[in-house]
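Reviewers of the previous submission asked for a worked example of the structure-prediction workflow described in the proposal, so we include one complete record here. The input consisted solely of the amino acid sequence. No template or homolog information was supplied to the procedure at any stage.
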Amino acid sequence: MDQNSPVQRQNVQRQLAIVEVARRARGRSMPEIKQMLMEAFARRRLPGPQGTWLDAVAAEASYGKAYIVDLVSARTARRVLPGGTGRTDGRRAGAGPDEGLAAVRAIVAGAVGLTLAVTAVMVIRAARRPPGP
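From that input alone, the workflow returned the following structure tokens.
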């Protein structure tokens, strides 16, 4: 999608509204968060979100997390927001795919280690068994 299209501009405004609410929503009730979202959308002259999408966005905001409308909008919002992070969870911005890749590598390394440990246990058990018919 063209970054300058009207739909993309609306999505960036939508993302900014969501981040604004997520920064203030932790510890608030779902109805209160939904109202905050509706008001943030109205201030940006966006159509009010409804239904399960609103529920999903409010649920994320209740944990202080901003629902991601789309990647381009999230990146643009991060550049536009005061402080530049766009994050609501206190983590540094821009960690990006490298952080995810490091997590995947750690999981794979753990799985390999566990596989080696289980294999060692099986070999030891097999070595201790008396020979059978």
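Helices lie at 6-25, 30-43, 51-62, 71-80, 96-128. We consider this example representative of the routine output the project will generate in years two and three.
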